[in-house]
Each structure stands twice: as C-alpha cells, then as structure tokens.
Amino acid sequence: MYAVIKTGGKQYRVAAGDLIKVEKLAGEPGETVKFNEVLMVGDVIGAPLVDGAVVEATLIETRKGEKVRIFKKTRRQGYRRTNGHRQFETVLRVTSILGGGKDIKWDGTVSLTTKAELNARARNLAPRSLAAALDTDVDLDTAPVVEPAVVEEAPKKKAAPKKAAATTETADEA
C-alpha cells in the first residue's frame, strides 16, 4: 500500500520503508515526523485530504543537496556569469501509514547512518562501525606481529652492446 503526501510544496508517493528526500524540515536525527496532509491512501482519494490519515517517518539527516549550476550568457557580447546553489534537504525513512481504513507499519530498523559516513566508508576513510572502532580489546604484547612481505626484485636486463664507433679517416689524418 502507498500514500501520496504533500510537503514543501511538492507531492511524494511513499510506501512503508521508503527512503525519501524532502525540503528541509525542523528536527533532530532520530525524531519522528508526522505528515497530516495525505492526499491519497491506496485507492482512497481525499477531497482534498483523506480524513484522519497520517504518514509517520523518522528523520535521518538534514544535509545540503546536489549543486545546481546557474549559467547566464549573452551571445556575441562577452557576457558570461556562473553561479551555484545547494538547497538544504531532509532525508526521511517512512515507518508507517495510518488511515483510510488501513494501517501499514514497517518492521525494519531505521539506520541513522548519514550519506557522508557511507561515502567515507566507501573510500576506506572511516571505520566500519563506531562501536568496533572504540571497543577494540587488542593487547599489543600478545597480538601477533605481521612481518612485511619481502619482495624480490626481478633481475635486470643486460644492456645491449654498444656499436663500435666507425673509424673514418678524415682529411687531416691522411
């Protein structure tokens, strides 16, 4: 089952468990956000809203979105201007859709891992988990020592023999 909600002047088709990006909303990561402007639930269409329908979501992060480039140019006048903008956006995980005679809840767990942390993990710049990074119980005295592997160099090729310089008699030597 899905619902159509309205927020930030836009409409979004959502289902339980979906990850959506909307215009910036107030709140901290982990908070529950409720959307009362539900335009449609399943096959029930509101006029203009479905009575008593609520979509609940968990706020994961608020971040800057993709960069938008604004380029202005006037032909044959040498006029060029480049500008840019990054809009703030909020990432939400839809947890439940209530109303329209149906109640759908998502059974999964909401991970509050941000996109920046996922990108850092992909580039091997961050530990896989914070708990693993903080709770390492490795005793350096008893830990096995890993010796660096010795790489033998390949034998070098012998240089090609130099050609003997051709002896030419010049007019002075003759």
Helicity range? under 10%
- Beta-strand level of the residues, as a percent range? 35-45%
Overall pLDDT? 84
Order of helices and strands: EEEEEEEEEHH
Radius of gyration: 33 Å
End-to-end CA span: 106 Å
Counted beta strands: 9
Oligomer: single chain
Q: Which segments are poorly predicted (pLDDT under 50) over 5 or more consecutive residues? A: none
Could you explain how this protein is built, in words?
This protein is mainly beta and about 170 residues long. The protein has a domain at about 1-110. It contains two helices and nine strands. It has helices spanning about 115-120, 130-135, and strands spanning about 1-5, 10-15, 20-25, 30-35, 40, 45, 55-75, 80-100, 100-105. Strands 3, 4, 7, 8 and 9 form a five-stranded antiparallel sheet that branches. The N and C termini lie far apart (about 105 Å). The model has no long low-confidence stretch (mean pLDDT about 85).
List keywords for this structure.
mainly beta; four-stranded antiparallel sheet; flat
